[in-house]
């Protein structure tokens, strides 16, 4: 951006720019522009004019012209000095996506370095560092470990004692976890210090010399949890008490129980059928003394409730009495089982929970000997430091968390990561055109359908347009403020990510838990072929999206922003095998991340195969079959069917002739099944195929959650929420709570669905995931804020879950029973009708007319025909899309007939019609 010499710019320059006057003898005019994720400085030369020699007597050359250069930084940094003044460091562009910052301090004391990208602080900014004078006799400390670090990786710094003489050097690290400190005397007046933080957060590092803090001490380091992988198991150990009275199995489903300790802590507890036929409760005793057990049906105590239960000292779970043995909690080896033993025989009743966090997700196996002792084995695949949290009755056992050094060969897994800034989408207004886009290559738009349900419960069909090849958009115009549910189906099955949440008006919440991702690239892929998936960040607001692919080979990742709160990601890998796709938003994993994806070898001969005569109208417990054409391919075919419950079953394959196979399978459940068809171990085109078995009326879009348990909650207080499954069909309801500690949780049947109750023990953020037939309901996972006192010990994230097989339920409204109709907004006067069948009919023939209700809103079409001797024989109504209908009817008697056509409760124009036969 510059202009010719004849038109100099004389307007003043904006004050926010930094001006640098530079003189050049001769040069080409040029301008450097910012490359995406590369150079971060734009240099703009924009004014050019002659400079007479007499005005510059001090120059050793005669300039022919002068340029003023102005710099616009997307990366900015500034240092706040102890005096309060602000200084600017030097930013060097490394031209590889990174920048280096250099600073020459002018004052002693604590400095703050603020680093911003596009006006936003980068992670960890502002950074604090201490500047000391270089005079002898002082002890100083420096190094990255005083400022930042990553959990499970040693944080290091150096202490210089040159010229300080003799004296006691003392170090301490305090923070969210204990940190093992090691140090090494370098014999040159410096000491190298390393500490290992095991949990993210802020750590206080104290360095004393001669019982006095050195200058700058204590230091505060920010430790992040980036890059760690966690696995966990829980083993129950509960006290059981039999209650008087006999309860039938049907009654047991509608009962819920809770137990209140002497201090007032109330938790849900489980009811179970005892061998005697009576019911019993199962709970974890936390206190000594008399407990009160309440058993209720629909909010009312059953006979003899509340019951009294006395807990003695030896029954209360005591983590200090758990004995842990085995060297595997100090050192371990990769690719082998590292075993240690846990003895809880003298520790009372309590649940044992184990989590292992480290460079790889270590596989855990637990062998319960049923005598209070267990053997636990873990198998890591990468060397490094692992953190083992072992808790009993929600408290750490002695020595936990353990830091384990794992040695051995890794898997040489390659990791590629990209990071992109996502801008918040402008607020959507009522009446505006809304759009939700998704990419599904290789399908036909005829098999796609979409509906939008408003906050008031009104469902309407939405229009789907193909923007470009494989890219589709759902269009709708909202009539209300609030959270809408957008369901997108392909061949009557929800696409990955559906049902979607779409907020009209301001967003009520933001964050990683509201990001959705879905597509074939998160399920399977092929070596050397781009695998694609969608990411929807609209509901999460603005932030940084980080995408990583880790596996046997490095990935090439491509990112395409659709500028509407969604984006398209594709990646290509050169080696087959197991890969992990990590998706983080503002440094937190999105729901279901990381995704485990198997990349199969190059398709080879498998690409020749095709499926013919794919079955429809399948029924559970009835065999089904389809044909596969080989088209000349040579090799072995194998197939399996995966049911909704994740149970796998082999298919029976028979070679019919030289070029055709018959594949038979036996579905045993209703719901969406996946059929995997492989040739020479590689998926054939289109595999795995998703098919519907039976009348699967399960719809997660119809499930809604509400109640206090989804908002602000307190530790030690039992809270509940209602999950409304009316009109959603019978399915599997799975509720999972991730948080700072495990929660006691139960689920009981109520009139409108299911009631979930839980008691949190630690303050912090909890995330409740609610899935129906393995699909998130709208709003899931829900972010829950918990306040109050700590009633357990912190130690890594913990997961609690409950799974229920539901029964079909229908809504009840007012005095009438049955399904509640949605509130229709329609106008029957805008309906157009035409056709001979509205005036005249012929005996024994199909008489036809059409109805156009495209401009009449949404409602139900009713058609009735009454003749001299009663109703006509048959009426057929065919919906052809977008509220267009074809109506056929058959009459067998002469005379005058009355034809009624209603749109909801209102007659359409001309109705009732008089028809002559």
Walk me through this protein's architecture:
By secondary structure, the protein is mainly β. It folds into eight domains: 64-224, Immunoglobulin-like; 233-311, Immunoglobulin-like (Sandwich), CATH 2.60.40; 323-412, Immunoglobulin-like (Sandwich); 413-424 and 507-602, Immunoglobulins (Immunoglobulin-like, Sandwich); 429-504, Sandwich (Immunoglobulin-like), CATH 2.60.40.10; 604-693, Sandwich (Immunoglobulin-like), CATH 2.60.40.10; 704-806, Sandwich (Immunoglobulin-like); 828-916, Immunoglobulins (Immunoglobulin-like, Sandwich), CATH 2.60.40. It contains one helix and 82 strands. The strands form 18 sheets. Strands 21, 22, 23, 24, 25, 26 and 27 form a seven-stranded antiparallel β-sheet that branches. The longest helix has 5 residues, at 249-253.
Distinctive features:
single chain; 917 residues; mainly beta; Immunoglobulin-like; 8 domains; seven-stranded antiparallel sheet; six-stranded mixed sheet; 1 helix; Filamin/ABP280_rpt; repeat; Filamin/ABP280_repeat-like; cytoskeleton
Question: Helices and strands in order, then pairings?
Answer:
Elements lengths: L17 E7 L16 E9 L15 E9 L1 E6 L5 E2 L2 E4 L5 E4 L6 E9 L2 E2 L5 E5 L8 E3 L5 E3 L4 E6 L8 E6 L5 E6 L4 E7 L4 E9 L2 E2 L5 E6 L4 E7 L3 E8 L2 H5 L1 E6 L5 E8 L4 E6 L5 E9 L2 E2 L5 E5 L11 E3 L5 E3 L4 E6 L8 E7 L4 E6 L4 E7 L4 E9 L2 E2 L5 E6 L6 E9 L11 E6 L8 E6 L5 E3 L1 E6 L2 E6 L5 E9 L2 E2 L5 E5 L11 E3 L5 E3 L4 E6 L6 E9 L3 E7 L4 E8 L3 E9 L2 E2 L5 E6 L9 E3 L11 E6 L7 E6 L5 E3 L1 E6 L2 E6 L5 E9 L2 E2 L5 E5 L10 E3 L5 E3 L4 E6 L7 E8 L4 E7 L2 E7 L4 E9 L2 E2 L5 E6 L10 E8 L26 E3 L12 E6 L8 E7 L2 E2 L2 E8 L2 E7 ...
Parallel strand pairs: 12-19, 29-36, 47-54, 65-72
Antiparallel strand pairs: 1-3, 2-3, 4-5, 4-8, 6-7, 8-9, 8-10, 11-13, 13-16, 14-17, 15-16, 17-18, 17-19, 20-31, 21-24, 22-23, 22-25, 23-24, 25-26, 25-27, 28-30, 30-33, 31-34, 32-33, 34-35, 34-36, 37-49, 38-42, 39-40, 39-43, 41-42, 43-44, 43-45, 46-48, 48-51, 49-52, 50-51, 52-53, 52-54, 55-56, ...
